[in-house]
Amino acid sequence: MTTHEPSISPNDNLKGFLLAMLSSAFIGSSFIIKKLGLRRAGASGSRASSGGYGYLLEPLWWIGMITMIVGEFSNFVAYIYAPAILVTPLGAISIIVSAVLAHFFLKEKLQKMGVLGCILCVVGSTMIVLHAPGERTPSSVDEIWELAIQPTFLLYTASVIAIVLFLVLYCEPRYGQTNILIYVGICSIIGSLTVMSIKAIGIAIKLTMEGWSQVAHFQTWVFLMVAISCIIIQLNYLNKALDTFDTAVVSPIHYAMFTSFTIFASVIMFKDWSGQSASSIASELCGFITILSGTVVLHDTRSSDPASVSEMYMSVSPQVSWYFPANGDTWKRKSEEILLPDFDAILKQDHFT
């Protein structure tokens, strides 16, 4: 079988860089537009986080979907021209775009520590990019298939499937509404397999356009089916994450986890660390730790949900709270406040520490 050894010229890298930047701008905007659509749909029906699909009838959500598709298509083309190790970390731009737009359109305030978390994610990604090894682009889909069926990557794939099933079947029903890492984790872990498949499809398209057709190879269609399946799962759980938590937090956490798992998958599949110096590997590991730190900071500083009605009274010690039903509404006065005789007072003893 005749193969073609494609080369990545500086112009190709520049094209990939510009397309990745454009992709991040579109994807960052799509987070905001889709969130607005999800809010509208949730106001008139079942929310996506509760298993509802009313957002499919919301035009604004579809505009966000189209924006995301344009961004993902730009990202897809970027993988054709540049290595995944270069394209994937540039998703940090989508964090900045979504955070700025969320501030103006969604009124989601990101705390100072949240900003620090974003910076840590970007710094960690920059460290990885600066010290990442050069990627040798496979010459055909058959060569990528050989890399995909090597024992170490098969073990990684099996681990991804097992973890995702655990998160979907056990963690999501119990903690999905309170822990942002459940929805985002499913989306990000599956995303690492998506990128590997998209890279294979991109190479197949590029080689076909250059005269070395890859259409007849069954591996091309296998990678295509894997990519489509993974993308559907990603979109489903990304919608749930956006509908449940603040966009300004979902976006950077998704980026940090997605980038980490994608680079890890690329290291296993393409053996990127082979031949690297110890200092370069240590720098990349520091980048991963920095990204993880940023993720933890963002998770700890996310906006808390509004308190429920039963939690509206304060548990202070010692103190008595008085509840007054008036015109169907419940009002509360502290014991030291003046009581009006017209109200029917109900005494309730607060919690004493």
From TrEMBL:
GO terms for biological process: magnesium ion transport. One of its GO terms (cellular component) is membrane. Its main location: membrane. It comes from the Eukaryota. The chain crosses the membrane at residues 16-33, 53-70, 76-106, 113-133, 153-171, 180-205, 217-237, 249-269, 281-298. It is a multi-pass membrane protein. Keywords: Cell membrane, Endosome, Ion transport, Magnesium, Membrane, Transmembrane, Transmembrane helix, Transport. It is found in: Cell membrane; Early endosome. GO terms for molecular function: magnesium ion transmembrane transporter activity. The keyword Kinase does not apply. Pfam families: Mg_trans_NIPA. InterPro entries: EmrE-like, Mg_trans_NIPA. The keyword Amino-acid biosynthesis does not apply. Acts as a Mg(2+) transporter. Can also transport other divalent cations such as Fe(2+), Sr(2+), Ba(2+), Mn(2+) and Co(2+) but to a much less extent than Mg(2+). Belongs to the NIPA (TC 2.A.7) family. Homodimer. This is Probable magnesium transporter. It comes from Cucumis sativus (Cucumber). The lineage of its organism: Eukaryota, Viridiplantae, Streptophyta, Embryophyta, Tracheophyta.
